[in-house]
Specification:
By secondary structure, the chain is of the alpha+beta class. The chain has two domains: 229 residues, Zn peptidases (Aminopeptidase); 81 residues, Peptidase M42, domain 2 (Elongation Factor Tu (Ef-tu), domain 3, Beta Barrel). Helices cover 26% and strands 27% of the residues. The protein has an eight-stranded mixed β-sheet, with helices on both faces. Strands 4-5-8-7-6-9 form a six-stranded antiparallel β-barrel. The protein has a three-stranded antiparallel β-sheet with strand order 10-11-17. A hairpin with a 4-residue loop joins strand 4 and strand 5. Helix 1 crosses helix 4 and helix 4 packs across helix 8. The structure holds cobalt (II) ion and zinc ion. Zinc ion binds next to helix 4 and strand 13.
């Protein structure tokens, strides 16, 4: 599974430009699902049929990652940019970006800027060009870039950019490969444009009309020095979401996930996220409403180029998806 996580997290996929990631996932699951298609916006939908008594579950993980878009190129070949998704300003100075064509640039700040006064419009990207003309040979206004960083294996713990949410994609891929005959019909949806407002999940859910929606996404932890008070710890299991800013998990869905963990000896913890959202926020408001919840992968340093997860939590999330696939949902949803 580590090899898959490395591949997925090192791929290029800012919001709206996720085709490289989608291509990778297609290759990894095509032999393990009954149907595979992409939709208009760029969601990848893989279907695994269940039995007649089963229900229809949409499992969503987003393929996009945060990044930047070039807004302006000056006469000396320096680029200005706007954020794509929730880019944290403290993570930028000295970091590198990578464009679709492989061009690398370094982000730095204007000369006299005080650290406390740093804003995005005081930052520029240097791609090694000495003029506007030379810069435009490599990058044009409107092009997207991601934060450039390699995957690192620390044993149980892994660091990479875009663990948010390639780790959720990896959980679904692993689950799809391990399930042979699910009781419930499973729609594995690898969604586009989550980081800019849960957009792909919205149209996918509208088209699929599932009986149950589950998002697989990262959540924050409260286990670093002087951290926020949050009862989620790396290595303590799958996090079952109670609420975030986009969703109050349907009580019956939340209770079902807890029961499945207890019945299958899957380590879990309850998650209350004060700010942030996932695809489940869009799914549960679809049409007349869809009961929905989220299985979260505890992650440190979210939205930096060095997001850290624990492989044992990832495994717990896979086990929980496998349990949901076989669960008897009659009378629950
Ligand atoms: Co995110
Ligand atoms: Zn995410």
């Amino acid at each position: 599974m580590k090899a898959i996580i490395k591949q997925l997290t090192e791929a290029f996929g800012p919001s709206g430009y996720e085709t490289e990631v989608v291509g990778l996932i297609q290759e990894l699951i095509q032999d393990h699902v009954d149907e595979l298609r992409t939709d208009v916006l760029g969601n990848l939908i893989a279907v695994k049929h269940g039995s007649k008594e089963g229900k229809r579950i949409m499992l969503a993980a987003h393929t996009d990652e945060i990044g930047v878009v070039i807004t302006y190129i000056d006469d000396n070949g320096f680029l200005r940019f706007a954020p794509i998704g929730g880019v944290g300003i403290t993570t930028l100075v000295g970091n590198r970006v990578r464009f679709a064509n492989g061009t690398i640039g370094v982000i730095y700040q204007e000369g006299k800027t005080e650290w406390k006064e740093l804003t995005l419009d005081k930052l520029f990207i240097d791609i090694g060009a000495v003029s506007k003309e030379e810069a435009e040979q490599k990058v044009r206004v409107g092009e997207f870039a991601i934060f450039h960083r390699e995957f690192t294996d620390l044993g149980n713990r892994l660091i990479a950019k875009s663990m948010d949410d390639r780790i959720g994609c990896a959980v679904l891929i692993e689950a799809a490969r391990r399930i042979t005959q699910p009781k419930n019909t499973l729609y594995f949806v690898f969604t586009t444009q989550e980081e800019v407002g849960l957009r792909g999940a919205r149209t996918a859910a509208y088209g699929l009309e599932p009986d149950l929606g589950l998002a697989l996404d990262v959540t924050l932890t409260g286990d670093m020095p002087e951290a926020r008070r949050m009862a989620v710890t790396l290595g303590q299991g799958a996090a079952i979401k109670v609420k975030d800013s986009s969703l109050i998990a349907h009580p019956r869905v939340k209770d079902l996930l807890v029961k499945l963990c207890e019945a299958n000896n899957i380590p879990y913890q309850m998650e209350v996220l004060e700010r942030g959202g996932t695809d489940a926020g869009a799914i549960h408001l679809t049409k007349a409403g869809v009961p929905a919840g989220t299985i979260s992968i505890p992650t440190r340093y979210v939205h930096t180029p060095s997001e850290m997860v624990d492989l044992r939590d990832v495994q717990a999330c896979v086990d929980l998806v496998l349990a949901a696939a076989q669960a008897d949902l009659a009378g629950i949803i």
